[in-house]
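Recap from last week: sequence in, structure out.
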Amino acid sequence: RNIVLSRRALLAREQEKARKEFYQTISVNDTIDGTVTRIMPYGAFVQLSSGVEGMAHISEMSWSKAAKPESMVKVGETVRVKVIGIVPGQKPGLLKISLSMKQLTEDPWESAGQQFHQGDKIRGTVTRCANFGAFVELVPGIEGLVHISEMSYKKRVLKPEDIVTAGETVSVMIKEVDLDKRRLSLSIRDAEGDPWINIAEKYKIGQTVEGLLEKKEKFGYFINLEPGITGLLPKSNLNKA
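Predicted structure tokens:
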């Protein structure tokens, strides 16, 4: 003569009803407020309604490629999101909802033409290094490339890590702005300055100077006078020196 009750079954039934009603009202491009429930390395899960979650992939959380999910949102925080995709989920009756936070803010490239110009000197953060150079973020969402040939006047660079590391703040000069391709060409060496520019004023014919022996060759010695400035002492002039 026992009666077995289940509140869980009742809540599940109510949640299922609420979920179906919510599914009928939501559509792509809707803007909605939700609560962050989980943060993962690849993005954040946001509760949109009772029993309904959507996911904002890390690529849709910020225009910046360097931003991490945990630095942008916290569990329990209310965020405004845009629905960018709705497809059937793996489980019957469930939908997979894709969300975006960054699409509710202005695309930084839309105003890049007014903000960045050729010849500008600006500070940025190194986001990553590749064999051919380093990428530097000037503002969130605006990244440019410093080619390995544009890293230093003072020494030959074999790999970008010899000059910069990810996360480091560096000064760069903008060499080219291509808004159509969304590309910025940057230079670290031009921001520091070419040591050869005033060479004629610093070193005169007949002047006695000291330097560091850099390399010996059959025809003479290469002498480094200062970072980026190396001269040749011909073998025929060794006795004269």
